[in-house]
Predict the structure.
Amino acid sequence: MTRAMTFIGLFLTIVIGAGTYWVSHEVERLEKRYSAIQSEILNEQETIHVLDAEWSYLNNPQRIESLAKTYLKLDQIAPLQMASIDDLPEDADLHQYRLDKFGEAVAFLPVPRARPDELAPDEAAEAMIINAPSLAATRSDAQEGGQ
Amino acid sequence: MSFYRFSYWLRGDRPELSPDQRERHAIETARNRIFITGAMFAIGFVWITAGLVDATVLRQGNEPEMASGSDTRELKTERADIVDRNGMLIATDLPTNSLYADARVIKDPVGSADQLLTVLPDLDRDTLIRHLSSQKAFVWIRRNLTPEQQYAVNSLGVPGLNFQREERRVYPHGRLFAHVLGFTDIDNNGIAGVERKFDNELRINNGPLQLSLDTRIQYALEEEVESAMKTYDAVGATGMVMDIYTGEVLGMMSLPDFDPHRPGQAPADARFNRATLGVYEMGSVFKLFNTAIALETGTVNLQSMYDASQPIRVGRFAISDYRGENRWLSVAEIIKYSSNIGSARIALDFGTETQRKYLKKFGILDTPRIELPEVGSPLVPNPWREVNTMTISFGHGLAVTPLQVVSGISALANGGILRPATILKQDGAPAGERVISRQTSDKMRRLMRLVVTDGSGKKAEVPGYFLGGKTGTSEKLVNGRYVKNARMSTFVAAFPMQDPKYVVLVTLDEPKGTKETYGFATAGWVSAPAVGKVVTRIAPLLGIEPANAKAPEIEQALHIDLRKGERKLASF
């Protein structure tokens, strides 16, 4: 009994001793790693900072403009080229049909508006507004009129 | 005797008993003592165990977060970054290396100097030798080396030459924000512009400083104004874009400009911020203020008629019109034809005191407030005579900064509220002060639109964006005399006029007419088209949708009745 207890005690002492040693060693190792990571983070932050400056430099409008002129066949947007979602035909129009010249029913498509460069500026400014009433609107008007 | 008894007690012995009883008694005492000692140890261990259980299981189940707090390091630059309204970096600190020498270690100053000169040829040999033989522990040789230069110096292998890590202010967009941002000296102290005004805040470095400027708008403004300046061979130019509801400056530039990395190489003229520091007579732009005062005080309505058929003579001055109509004009026509005579007569009707009171309310007579150290004070006539009242009505005899004009025009267009100009990004509109009523502002919008549709600002028109503004051409004062062919040509416009949101100003200093402008260098020919081009470029960036001129609500908002009304006799 006493002997067993002694062995158990001895065993526990060794285990606890080894455990403590391992833990303290591990802590030391992690602390080293921690400070290494800290300085790595600092380095990365500095790199990010420099890259931020470079990003801003590369985003210089003058540079982008000259690149756009070289590689893109795009021009500055003219006011006439802009349209709002309200200018689009209503949903109802898409389900309408009209008869083409052969008498076939085809889907109703609004007439495309004229290209701005084919018109004088004043005309173009007007053409950009689709002001013809939609088919749905005319039909409901007619019904109200009938009543 | 007592000591004799105590020693027996300590041993647990009772000498008075028989040997047999003594033995038993001694054993009993020993047992008791072992038991008590054991119990003491047991209590101690239980106590420690309970403490451990409490500390590790009950009180705090998980490990305390040691890693947080104390030693997490963050990159902190010497000066804070400056960003534009969209967060784009426009000024930052970058690490560089500077070369210094420990002259005590240098063995051969002349030889080392010659070696250094092979790498950094622009150093002065004599100064360098003097520095290297000075026996000082620290002498700067060259600040802010490029990485190549550093590598080259390092490979020379001269002992006593060392590198000091430093930070250098870098402006990724170069000249674009030169006058607003200002610059720093070699030790990173702000000495102009925002860098100087916010020097302390930038040093404390609590995150980046956000300005109200927009890089894209600034660039569009810069490019168009620069091209106008080149086309008309002007000696200088300035441009500004302001949000009229918040007073935020979205773009501000002055030409000629300078490279903020090398401010010392630029002439003083280039470092001068014409937008806030320069004071100029703004010319006919002031007719808008003049008319607003008259409409606000009720001395006129838009149909009131004034005699502009003949020049006004006051002492040795004569006030005449540039390409005058020489007839009676309504108030609307006075703005449309930019009549000096008519404006002077309007001003006489409300008088000097009213003019001074309202111009003060518009912030024209005080030094403007903006977060820049370079701010000019207006030149106000003293004494303010009747003749001053007349000339100020069309913008002569009172020199102001372009910034004040932009703020004042913003107040005219935004419904009558003057807000302080700012270059810091704002959350919502700051408190303002009402200068004119909403009704007067509404009339001013129509008049400004009239100038662009029918008056001197036709060249600024951009279909869909409804500019409204006023031209102003003034002859420059040189040594107290007006010079005929040296002009300041200003165009200031708000858009879109049915619901104005932004004001744009372009001023050209001494523009010269070209073949395309038939030799004219007046604002309507040189500055107005530049404003039009700026608006074409920035309106999509600002999210302003082009609208149809025939839309009834716009026609209603901008309609102006030019019918001739009753003739009103002028006051003299």
Q: What stands out?
A: Residues 2-69 of chain A form one domain. Residues 2-58 of chain A form the longest helix (57 residues). Confidence is low (pLDDT under 50) at residues 128-147 of chain A. The first strand of chain A starts at residue 97 and ends at 99.
